[in-house]
Design goal:
Elements lengths: L1 E2 L6 E5 L5 H10 L12 H14 L12 E6 L4 E10 L6 E9 L6 H4 L5 H12 L5 E7 L3 H9 L3 E11 L1 H7 L9 E3 L5 H10 L3 H7 L10 H13 L2 E10 L4 E11 L6 E7 L7 H11 L8 E6 L3 H10 L2 E12 L14 H6 L27 H9 L13
Parallel strand pairs: 5-6, 11-12
Antiparallel strand pairs: 1-2, 2-3, 3-4, 4-5, 6-13, 7-12, 7-13, 8-9, 9-10, 10-11
Length: 403
């Protein structure tokens, strides 16, 4: 538990079992500021709370499935807000703020940009305690000016604008009458993770590529995650269908789609689409294929997203007759953790000068050699001095050399 310095009446801590009912009421009173709503998932979280807490004690793919922090007001003990965060990639270098909700009286325009406000303290608690995160991302409605001001106040910058499109059931029925003509459409498996990672990298701008920081492992499904996803689809009456288009000449994936079908017709179908920038002519063919896959199910609309850097997709959807449902802004924030430097206390000047004094040089012993010893020459010997003086020309031979 950590008490923030800005106020003595607010404590930010991890979520506990007794907080789940209050979070449900808080979500009903005021909608989520970012991401999907948590209210629809609270009943199953109540059932799986003990298991999720146990899984969070050791490293595993489901460790951060329910990662929440709450703001508790003292001394009343009421929950004034909460934030839910999850890792965005397998390396956990990028984290996403799934949801941020506070009390209705805490989101007034004059309190949103206050650094001591509840929303700002929840965000700063995440920045300071999630040490793995180097980058934070989130998406928010562009029409919610107060919440945008809150995120801008805490350092988030716009990254891309996301448009949600809706294709009606009648439009899908008319598209299904055409022939998609996709001979190289293959199902997706873990063996195709490298191809999908390469496609994902080339389909987005360099800045988004750096923020997302995705690798091959992000496109592989682990056993526990796949098992949980299957159970969730069975519980929500959904079914997933995915595939990618393979280019045999370049030996690369040029398009990928993932379709989440609603088998009971209670909600709209969801689609994820990634297309190589050089193969934008695949948009009509892929939409025809997805329209054929939804046939035979209860009539329902198909939801699809497009970013502002995907001009060809937005132009085609507008010509096709799709309706814009929502505009959201994708934002990011970098985090650089500073290391605290320990300063020495009561450091005297004499102690500093001792380090500047020259150290005494100790002679280093070397090898002893007889060749290096100073030998006296024969000139310096007293026995030879007289001989050298008395030596004359008569002692020399006629050619001038000694015998």
């Amino acid at each position: 538990m950590v008490t923030l310095n800005e106020t003595d009446l607010l404590v930010v801590r991890g979520v506990q079992f007794r907080d789940l009912e209050n979070l449900d009421k808080l979500t009903d009173q005021q909608g989520a500021m970012s991401g999907s709503s948590l209210a629809g998932r609270l009943p199953q979280n109540l059932f799986w709370y003990g298991m999720l807490r146990a899984l969070g004690c050791f490293p595993n793919p489901l460790q951060h499935l329910f990662h929440c922090f709450v703001a508790e007001q003292k001394p009343q003990g009421t929950i004034g807000g909460f934030v839910q965060v999850t890792p965005f990639n397998t390396s956990r270098s990028t984290w996403k703020i799934e949801q941020l909700s506070v009390q209705a009286q805490a989101i007034q325009p004059e309190l949103v940009t206050d650094p001591k406000g509840m929303g700002s303290q929840l965000l700063r608690y995440c920045f300071q305690n999630v040490w793995e995160a180097r980058t934070w991302v989130l998406d928010v409605d562009v029409n919610d000016k107060n919440i945008l001001a809150l995120y801008r106040q805490n350092g988030f910058q716009p990254l891309a604008q996301i448009t949600h499109w809706s294709l009606s059931a009648e439009l899908l029925t008319s598209l299904a009458q055409n022939d998609p003509d996709l001979p190289n459409l293959l199902p997706v498996s873990n063996a195709d993770a490298a191809l999908l990672c390469q496609l994902d990298c080339v389909s987005m701008p360099p800045l988004m590529r750096q923020v997302f920081d995705r690798h091959v492992a992000d496109f592989k499904r682990r056993f526990l995650s796949s098992l949980l996803n299957r159970w969730q689809n069975w519980y929500t009456h959904q079914e997933e269908v995915s595939g990618y288009v393979f280019e045999p000449q370049r030996k690369a994936a040029i398009a990928y789609f993932k379709l989440t079908l609603s088998t009971n017709g209670q909600q709209a179908h969801q689609a994820e689409l990634t297309v190589h920038p050089a193969y934008t002519w695949l948009y009509p063919k892929l939409l025809v294929k997805m329209a054929q896959l939804v046939q035979g199910l209860p009539p329902q609309a198909l939801m699809l997203e497009s970013a502002d850097y995907q001009h060809e997709r937005e132009e085609y959807l507008e010509q096709l007759g799709a309706q814009r449902q929502q505009h959201r802004l994708l934002m990011s924030r970098s985090v650089w953790h500073k290391l605290k430097e320990t300063k020495p206390e009561r450091l005297q000047l004499s102690e500093v000068l001792q380090g500047l004094q020259p150290l005494p040089r100790t002679p280093i012993p070397s090898r002893m050699s007889l060749l290096n010893l100073p030998l006296k020459s024969q000139k310096d010997r007293p026995d030879n001095q007289d001989k050298q003086v008395n030596l004359g020309h008569e002692d020399l031979p006629e050619n001038g050399h000694h015998i």
